[in-house]
Amino acid sequence: MARFALLAAAAAVLVVLVSLVETGPLIILQGLAGLAVCAVGAWWFLAHRGVVRALGGALAVGAPMAVLALFLNGGLWFTAPAGVALWAGALGCARGALRADRRPDPPAAVRPGRPPRRPVLIMNPASGGGKVARFGLVERAEKLGARVLLLTPGTHTDVEELARKAVAEGADLLGVAGGDGTQAMVAAVAAEHDLPFLVISAGTRNHLAMDLGLDRSDPSRCLDALTDGVELRMDLGDVAGRAFVNTVSFGVYAAIVQRPEYRDAKAGTALDALPDLLSGGAGERLDALADGRPVSGQQALLVSNNPYSAADPLDVGRRPRLDGGELGVLGIRVDGAAQAADLAVRGALSPALTMLTSRRVEVRAAAGADSDAGAGAGADAGAASIPVAVDGEALTLPTPVVCTLRPRALRVLVPRDRPGAAAQVPELNWRRIATLALDRPGPGARS
User: Fold this and answer.
1) Which residue intervals of 144-226 are DSSP H helices?
2) Hey, is 215 helix, strand or coil?
3) Whole-number average pLDDT of the chain
């Protein structure tokens, strides 16, 4: 498969070179220009209102269509799709080769889970549009011997206190059917008492369930862990003393989540707020220190419990592992249409994007930024409060906000059969693909 990957990739490059001979290099420059114009249009659409927003929307939609028309007019109606298909095949074969090459997990990483005798599951009936009732989670859990604590929709419940009370009454497992924010609160209690934790994918997005390989289409399958489960360890994030399982967001997204209308109209609220936040009105810039490395003047900053995949274009939005012991840091700073175009064309090489890993991240409002507390610039900025979104939950925290990681602090009980687990492979590494393709195993070598 590694050899097929290299052959397909070489064929894709050959197709591009042949098309260049026929049409000239100008077609590539036209494509890059179209991508830049599309990015400029997207920036105008997001950062402005009125006529400029309408013009930006037209450019964002019209530029790709114009590039497509140029490609077709230039005779690329066959070579362009062929190149795309070959490159997609190369990526698929490369992933297959890396999956086959992956070494088995060390014995301590995954071990048979002991069936719990007094499991307690906290379920939110409103989560995920009513998945608890739709999939009969209460009835199924009680048949398996679990005690179910149902949250009352529309009322505030101290979920952490509810979990601590369950532990005091003898629970030997804690589980949650709800969103990632609720998962994090109960996970903190489970880690505190060194109890197994069960994730039930009844939330809206279920990012944690996805990265654990759980079935997000049928949350009732997560309950199989109660009778046929395996236990693994994962890291648990900490932000200002509060646990998080996925991400902590600062800046633009965190400011939007703070708005009361966001829950009922996410897209409309974001479009209404973005012009002020991106154009330097209501939005604060952020300064951060990641293991002592400065990350300055960011409009948006995301700190994740283990880094998200970056090298594999088919696995973006997922974390290859949850026990790596490092935070992922993603920062964005776009000051205008020109930088938006540069980010679109150069991607991760653009100075507008910061991607790194760290064990400790300290975030504060940028020097000179106004704060909710009325703090001044420079040294007084440390007294500011900034909006923060912790696993999607809106908070306001005093700066500096410190994010750290507790390596392998959480015991997670998962079903032995996880349909999404097989899809998690090492990040795409073409050097490793070349090594596999050229490898000549000797006699007696493992095939």
Assistant:
1) 159-168, 180-192, 207-211
2) coil
3) 81
